[in-house]
Amino acid sequence: MDTLALYLTAKLALITTAILLFIAMPVAYCCAYFRFPARPYVEALISLPLVMPPTVLGFYLLIVMGPNGGIGRFWEHLTGRRLCFTFTGIVLASLVYSFPFAVQPLKAAFEKIDLRMIESAYVLGCSRLETFYKVIIPNSLGGIIVATILTFAHTMGEFGVVLMVGGSIPGKTKVASIAIYEYVEALRYRDANILSLALAVMSYLVLVVVNVLNQRNKYGS
Length: 221
Prior knowledge:
By secondary structure, the chain is an all-alpha fold. The chain has helices at 3-33, 39-51, 54-65, 70-79, 87-112, 115-123, 128-136, 141-156, 160-166, 176-185, 189-219.
């Protein structure tokens, strides 16, 4: 079994989830509570990875992150290294690809909060930031858990985007989904089955842990 590919998959999923939750919360907050003319277009842009074929998204990410792309040139000027076909590159691609899976559950959770609670916090002198951390976040734990599950699970199963941007470099960009594909291509079904089973078990354990935490939060025990 390709344990290194599993390690890279878990590492990619954890890093992507942690960064996306940090980024997605203010974005979801703005989409939930602010009204502006361009909002439908912004929300459509956020949701675009949901309907765009992964290879199409991966192709355009490859262009902008490549040596001749804006992001690629900036990164190479900043670090002296190329961005494509690196672990950093597939992290950046995963952030784009999994972004709506983090934003949408958070937005839905924020919109369910009773506006009277938020208004009461303002009346008591809380700023928007204080209200966000003291009122909105504690009352949105279910949405945060769902966003965590979806982002982590979606990142673990990535294939097209990661393959386009990162290729298949052992120890650097070869995640489990790519390793499984290569095993099947080489007719190594036993290896593909073992790695697929390991990935399925990892996914199941993540769901179990999150569900246990959700139950404890729900019943306060």
